[in-house]
# Entry
Amino acid sequence: MTDVEPQTGAGPPPASQPARPGFASTAAYFERLADKARDDDQRQRWLEAAGFYRSLAGILPARPTSYKHNGGGPPLNRAERWRARAEECRSLADCFTDATCRRQLIELAAGYESMAVAAD
# Structure
């Protein structure tokens, strides 16, 4: 893809290049949640989510430059946050031509929507 900047290394980008959020940062978020998990079942679920995002980071290291966050500011509550993630997954699914990747992202979006409904 021409609108995706390649990931150049494991460290932070140089000061002249601002960091762009992507799947790797989302994986790190779920790994932090796993570290704080109170039981093994919860820890395993967070690590599975982190692994999924790590695999996506290997395919698409950063969000496409054409990706736009339409919310203006950060979501205000948990339900809005899950809905924003669902929309992000649906938007990213449009970037993939592989049917398996598209299906997984759409399924992930449906899961986020379910979490948003539960949070309401």
Notes: The longest helix spans residues 99-119.
